C-alpha cells in the first residue's frame, strides 16, 4: 500500500505532469498480454457493457483484453447505472450496493479495483475531521445515495465524531463544490474528476483533511467494486469471469501513466469529453491498480456497519456481505499470479 508521503508526492507529480501534458508513457506493459489465464469455454454472450468512473483506469484500458476473451461488441459507459439495465457489469461504492439492495435489486459483487480517490476538503483553519464539530456542510440531501452526505457522515463516525454534531444544511439545488470555493461551505466531499479540478483550481484555498488513499483503514479497503445483477450473472457465468479477468489483466498491465486509456474514453465523449481530459487523467493516475491487496469482505462489513451506525442502512450488514461471491476473485488470484 502507498505511504502518506508517497501519495502526497504522487499527487504533486500528477498535477504537474497533467498541467504540462507530459503523461505520455505507454499505459500497457507488453508482458501482461501473455498472461491469459486458464482456458475457458466461449462466453455465453459476445456483447459486454461495462460501467466506469473517471478513476477506473483498468476498465478504460480493458478493450484489447476483452477482445482476447471473446467479446466482439464492447461498450464502456459512465457508471453507476446498474439499476437502469443499461450495464452488465458496473462499478460502485459499497453504499451504492446497499442502495440497490434497498430498492429490491439482487446484486452480486465480484471484487474491488482500487482503494478509491475520495477526499474531504475543508476551509483554512480546519485541520481534521474532528474540527468539523459545529461547522456547516451544505449537501443536496441526507440520503444513502448521496455520497456528498453519506460518505462524510461515515468518515466522521469512523473518526469518533457524531455526524449529528455537524450543522448539515440541505439545499437540493445547491452546488456544494462551488459554495466551498466561495467560502460558504466549510467542507465538501470530492471524488473522481472533481479531485483533479480542486487540486488545480487556484481559487481553492482549502486543504484535504481526509483521503481514502492516505487514511487507514480506507487505504487498505476497496472503494470501486465490480458488481452485476444476479440475473445476468446466473445467465452468463463464463462471460462474467472472462470480463472480470480482462479488467484485472488490464489493471496488471498499467504503468503509472494512464494517458492513452483516458484519451480513448474522453475522445468518445465520456466524463465530460476532451475538455475534461486533465481532470479525468488526474483521477485515473492517482489510484493504484492493486486489486489483489483489497479485502472485499472486510470492505463491505466496514462500510455496512458505519452506514448502520449513522442510520442510513435499512438492510442488514449480512445482506450486504452476502452480495459478495468470492469464487471468481479467488480463481483469478491463482491464475494471474504476480510476475
Supply database-style keywords.
three-stranded antiparallel sheet; D-Maltodextrin-Binding Protein, domain 2; 15% strand; 2 domains
Molecular structure report:
With 339 residues, the chain is of the alpha/beta class. The protein has two domains: 228 residues, Periplasmic binding protein-like II (D-Maltodextrin-Binding Protein, domain 2), CATH 3.40.190.10; 93 residues, Periplasmic binding protein-like II (D-Maltodextrin-Binding Protein, domain 2, 3-Layer(aba) Sandwich), CATH 3.40.190. The protein has a three-stranded antiparallel sheet with strand order 3-10-4, with helices on both faces. Strands 8-5-9 form a three-stranded antiparallel sheet, with helices on both faces. It has a two-stranded parallel ribbon with strand order 1-2. β6, α5 and β7 form a beta-alpha-beta unit. α7 packs across α11. The longest helix is centred in the first third of the chain and has 17 residues. It is globular and about 60 Å long. The two termini are 18 Å apart. The N terminus is likely disordered.
